[in-house]
Amino acid sequence: MRVRFRRLSVAGMGVALLVLITACGSDGAAPDYGPYSIVPGNNDFDRQPSLIRGIFAESLRLADHIAFPTDVDADLATVWEAGVSADEKGLHESALSAPQRAAARPFGVVGSFGVAAANRGEGVTGPPLKYLHMSLTAFRDERSAAAAAAEMERVDFEVSSENAPVAVDAFPAALSHWRPGVPSMGSLLAWKNVVIRVYAQLPDPDLGRLVDMVTTAYRKQTAQLSGFDAAAVPDVTGVPLDPDGLLTRLVRTGDTIADPKTFAAFGIRAYSALSGDPARTLTNYSGKGVTALAVSHNKSLYRMRDSNAATSYREWLADDPENSEYTWMRNVRDLTGARCSEATRPDPKSVQARRYRCVVTRGEYVAVVYSNTETDIRQLAAAQYAIMAGVR
């Protein structure tokens, strides 16, 4: 399994709605759930050991502690890539050389996540390139991480006879090198059971500035890792995808194979890291009270800090102008916690045709569901509302 992808727009993740709130009278009929079950889902996808799921889940756990490139340098505002960079076959991070990826494999990679950004877009001519790639790779235990970092540095250093070691005084355990005259520097630091990798590039081969950039990256990254549970992971096959039960609060409509776009649960920093503007996205989520979220095919769920934040977030979604225009439609019968709308034109930012959508609010949760038919969206929204009540 290879899980790696480019930027996701904030609009695509925010699931904005432009709706008018309308109420509907009740005729006493039972809710229409159509083909959907209103029995809360279970975590069957987490019950059986799975190497694929476990590495993916551990990678997302790392992602919730990744430092953003703009934390290091405000100029690094254009994300080139971000995502899970390990699977059951080992590391597949593009910024690592093939010898480095092979060197890490015997030490037991249990997860990896990386993000890269620059001061301009890929292939765009402009100011001299400033670039930073940062990744976190977890190993079974601290000893494995330290040994893996040493071996990865050794094989990469030996790629060229011109490579020279570089000291990073603030982090004496860091293993670093550069090629004199080339404006880039690579560095590895074992932190408990995690290996932090930094690759920095500047317009000029100024070693002092490169060391400063790497030093700042390590300071920001170790600070973000301060709350990370670095306990040994002897068996990654048991790491759960959904420890907080968010996915069980969504109507089950597809398979349960872990995937960042179709079936996953995230902390808000991890999900923000996948956007084109991680810092702004994170500020938006935290400021509005989002504490975690999940995606499941044509649905998404936001856990808010309380019910008041949930109501406010519903209204914010209604006013966000970054998606296609929507117009109000008759609400689902007896479902005061739902607001539904119909697209007036296709959304050019969505690869899926999503003509109808409803935002469903109950307690401290907000769910957004999509469909291409009006009858189905009403049934899906009603079932989603019922399930959100059943697991409270």
From TrEMBL:
Transmembrane spans: none
Pfam family, one: DUF7373
Segment forming the signal sequence: 1-29
InterPro entries with a match to the protein in the record: DUF7373 (IPR055797), DUF7373_C (IPR056463)
Annotated keywords: Signal
PROSITE patterns membership: PROKAR_LIPOPROTEIN (PS51257)
Keyword Metal-binding in record: no
Domain named DUF7373: residues: 47-240, 246-389
Domain of life: Bacteria
Name by which UniProt lists this protein: Lipoprotein
Organism field: Nocardia terrae
